[in-house]
Amino acid sequence: MNISSSDYANNGTNETTSASTSCYVNDPFSLKLGRVIAYSVVIFASLLGNTLIIAVVSKYGRARKTINLSVMNMAVANLIITTVYMPRLIPMFLVGSVWLVDGDFGYVLCKIIPFLHSVAIIASVLTLLTSSLDTFCAVVFPLKHLFTTRVSRFAIFLTWVLAIGARFPYFLSLRTKTSATGKQTCGSSLNKLFNNKDARDIYYTFLLVSFYAIPWLMIFIFYSTIAITLKTGKTRDKKGLQLCV
């Protein structure tokens, strides 16, 4: 969540990914109310669904433990987005992109909320990647037991370390600012942080390639190989071609 007023966003050193205040403020009250109700339902459904997933997997998910660890990790990432980021959008529907919490606490929230949201997104993508790799190993190399519980736990730990590290520059660049209209906003200025007018473009190109394009390409390759393996009915191990079990 990168929230900024039009004054803040139009500055060349600031990110421009958030909506302008006018996107929501000037809408009819009935439309605002409809958005709030609909979004509240989504938040409740996400909280309930992901909490149930964690509870069920914790209690009954021992049979296929590695894939269940990935499922639980995905649910945790979803809960972070649901509890940290999504509630912020409700006041945004009503008053626009004004940052409502003042003082030091508001500054801390400005640092934490967008950062945790962005970390959870990358962690979700990497979890999908590890899950696809787990399935790939189970189907294509069923006799080797490559993706053990220990490996799965380390992979999950690594997804969060990579996600936090990748978004740490964003965390450093987040800050509150009072616009010319007297409204407080929360925004990011990567160009100013690195004292480089191209820093933002370089950083987001790196994120796009490293944590979206490459992972999704690998996921596509893994599942394509799985589909081919299941269709042909053959797997590979050290002894050669074996029938899938």
UniProtKB/TrEMBL annotation:
Its main location: membrane. It is found in: Membrane. Pfam families: 7tm_1 (PF00001). Coiled coil: none annotated. It comes from the Eukaryota. One of its GO terms (molecular function) is G protein-coupled receptor activity. Keywords: G-protein coupled receptor, Membrane, Receptor, Transducer, Transmembrane, Transmembrane helix. The chain crosses the membrane at residues 36-57, 69-95, 115-142, 154-172, 202-230. It is a multi-pass membrane protein. Residues 49-245 form the G-protein coupled receptors family 1 profile domain. The keyword Kinase does not apply. One of its GO terms (cellular component) is plasma membrane. This is G-protein coupled receptors family 1 profile domain-containing protein. It comes from Desmophyllum pertusum.
